[in-house]
Amino acid sequence: MLEPKRAIQTASKQEPRGLQIGQRVWIPILLVALLARLPGLVGKPIWFDEAFSALLSVKGPAAIVEATTADVHPLGYYLLLWAWGRVFGTTPFALRALSVLVGLGLVGVAYAAARAMVGPRLAAWFGWLVALSPFQVHFAQEIRMYGLLALELTAAAALYWAAVNHGGWLRWIGFAVLAAAAQYTHSLAAMYLLPMALIPVYRRNWKAVQATLLCGLGSLILYAPWLLRLATQIAGIRQAYWIPIPGPVELVRTLIIYLGGLPIATWALPIVLFSQVLVIGLGGWALLKGRRSNDPNSAIAGWSVYLAFAPLLLSFLVSQWVPVYLDRALLPAGVAFLFGLAWVLGGDQLPQRFRWTAVAAVALSFGVGLFSYWTYRGFAYAPFEEIVAQIGENKTEGEIVLHSNKLTAFPSIYYAPELTQAYLADPPGSGSDTLAPATQEVLGLTAQADAPTVIGDSDGVWFVIFRREISDYAALGFPEHPVLAWLRNNFRDEAVTSFGDADLYHFQGRHGGSDT
Question: Is 0.85 surpassed by the pTM of this model?
Answer without folding.
Answer: yes
